[in-house]
What does this fold into?
Amino acid sequence: MNVNIVISIIKLIGGVALLIYGMKILSTNLKQISGGKLEKFLVSVTDNKFKGLLIGILVTVATQSSATTTVIVVGLVNADILKLKNAIPIIMGANIGTTITSQILRLTSIGGDSWLSLLTPAVIAPILIIAGLVMMQIAKNRKSTTIGQMIMGIGLLFTGMITMVDIASGFSDLPILSDILSKLSNPILGVLAGAIVTLVVQSSAATVGILQAISTTGIITYSSTIPIILGQNIGTCGTSIISSVGGSKNAKRTAAVHLYFNLIGTIIFLIFIYTYQHFIGFSFWEEAIDMGQIANFHTLFNLVSTIILFPFINFIEKLTVMTIKDKNKQDDEEESDYLSILATLDERATNIPSLAIKNSTMVIEKMGEISEKNFRKSMNLLKDFQMKRLDKIQERENAIDKLDEETALFLVKLGSLELSEQENVTITALLKIGTEFEKIGDYAYKFSKTVENMHENNVQISEQAYKEFESMYNITEETILATIRTFKERNIEDVLEVEALKEFSEMQRENYKDAHIQRLKNGKCNVESGIAFIELIAIFEKIIGHCSNIGIFTLNYMTNKSFVTKQEFRKNIYETKSEILKQKLNECSHKYAI
It folds into this structure.
């Protein structure tokens, strides 16, 4: 291999990089300028699979990347905004939309003195780059700059393709290339090669573009090209699979849909093509293939695969569920297990307000339980930090947010109906209590992120500080449990226990803060550990405050009275239940003394 060949290979790789970079610029800036509209556009699919197919095509044509569309879909499913079943036709549409790139790139083969040559990438590319650059330079705002970058991205995409074609045209006399391509006529090797190359470059359009560039040499045939095209459709699934790592079960299933669609389509095409070739034979099988024919086969594969598999969307969904199964409900349940309770918020239940209120109460109870679990698991992180545990906490936090959002919408809709005064009071209380449990969940998650930051920066707190911190954690944990009990059982004793724990925690918090400041002065703790200690203690304070609010709202819920203020509540407690409160404070002093 002489130096000229090495230089040519480097230039070819540079062309591929420029093609991919152009796609990346176009896709990134399009998403930025859309301001989340792309996601909303995808969500608008509802239950219409034909609409979903069309949306998948349009979004992919706009972004010039099926990977972008699929990654967005995986994210939406992971956030439980889009259902798995509705995601399947979008992914099918994305596979069709990505073939437009190869159809555009085939224009590179147009030449001569024809006016059509003005439409070739060789002419359009520099115009787009110049136009994009000018627009970026004269832009008065961010939106104009973004549009300029998008235009330049398209120009760079075409420039990369032109570079690839120019360099590849000099490979026609390379025996080693002809030898490699002849081996790829083997369907298994060809499919593997296409999948691996696409997995590496993270773009099926780029792989097809490489083939189109090499086809200008006249040394690749149908027999060596078709398996590679089939393989690249499998390789492109790598991006969506990577994006689903750490996501929910349904996010992983969405990535699996992308893989199964292309894998099943490839198997069908391989069986048909090679069976026909063996018994009858294609007259053009060993003939050279050109850019347009590569683009056409790429399009044909995705169109036919969609036509064949489109009626079997339900089967594909079941296949992914069978492959990626839900775990048994154990201590670490998946987000989807928590969200299953949302099925109780059936709009038909609004015809029976008492049933609707009962169902809403069950969902809010579940929110409280998940919030408490996240708080407990966050403490476990401090003792033994594991990224997997943090991911589970994130899943549960997502579930809490979703439960709060759906319950609030359901209760607001219920509140717009003709209800009794007590039912209206109850709905108002439930809305407030749901929000308070959601805030407890937020602070539990903040607790876990603070612990993560401590782990990453190797922040250690002193033995005495840890004892004080653990005492405050135990007080807060007991307060959360008493609050959940208050809401479930509507018992005034539990309300008093929450208030006693709140009073005691305030006294302890001030004592521990003073002690920690003294340790800092004495050099027994450093600044980093001091900040972490104060942050965590502040989180406990916020959680206990929200627990107290739930107690007050639940008391209104229990007594069927109009809402009282916190001041009125505490005045009443100290006037009528002072002895019980003192007794409970005394119990706390003995229980949590260190």
In short: The radius of gyration is 31 Å.
